[in-house]
Design goal:
Elements lengths: L2 H15 L2 H4 L15 H8 L3 H8 L8 H10 L4 H11 L5 H4 L10 H10 L5 E4 L5 E4 L1 H6 L13 H7 L1 H6 L3 H18 L4 H13 L1 H9 L7 E8 L3 E12 L2 E10 L5 H11 L16 H14 L2
Antiparallel strand pairs: 1-2, 1-5, 3-4, 4-5
Helix pairs in contact: 3-4, 3-5, 5-6, 10-12, 12-14, 13-14
Length: 309
Amino acid sequence: MGHNAELSQFLRSRRARLGPEEAGVATNRSPRRVPGLRREEVAYLAAVSTDYYARLEQGRLTNVSETVLDAITRALRLDAVEREYFFRLARPQSFRARRRRVARPQRVRPGVHRMLEMLDSHTPAYVLGRRLDVLAANHLARALMTDWDALPARERNLARFLFLDDVAKDLFADWPEVAAETVAALRLDAGRHPEDPQLTDLAGELSINSPEFRTWWADHDVRERTHGSRRYHHPMVGDLTLEYEIVTFPGDPDQAMCVYTVEPASPSEAALRQLDRYRPDPCPGAGGGAGVTGRAGRGQIARQARSTH
């Protein structure tokens, strides 16, 4: 999708979700053909002309001042994440130097790999890169979700796993919520790297193969995940509730480590310890241990589980 089209659709989606009463706009209460604010109402709230706002929404303006963008941010009630996304769409020239670095392949530093190893046997942890690519994961993260190391490189992606792997809908107890948040995080990454062809290809593939992704992608919601909780229904160890924290690395904001924690002495901690005992032999050439990778991975863990009881 072109950059101007992305800006246009984002602003339209933000107008549509905000009613005139909520925005403090006086109306004659006559029926409206479309939901949300009209262009002239956004222009009034932002103290710009209707024609100026219309040209901005159509992607026909460049070098829009920060003052005007802030006024529109306030008019549309954008949060901090949405504001950053909006600025990147409206002023792409400000981030041109950053975009030139998009093509560089991402590498996980040796020190980060050692951190993952240190966390192993204690808690799941993995590193996310651009497009929600899974760049590295420890044993427990692979056992919890899927064996990322055994997958082809292009398939090591959290969004692709959630929407295209049948395991995911059974694994995540709150799959619709998790999947919708993931789409919003991917949309945010698209704003940060608007000329990333791999992200465009990924969004296109998921839109074709998943009606849920297609619907949520069209909502243009953006979200930055920093912490929260996840409920899992694991085929081998049952139900787990894990808290997560996402930490970015100084010097490389496009990489972040997701680290899970668990309530001490809880059933979830016991389930996690049980999961840690299932360590199948590494897949030849995969570079790591096997986790719950489709039917084969689940079957291998199931055989080990039976042998321990």
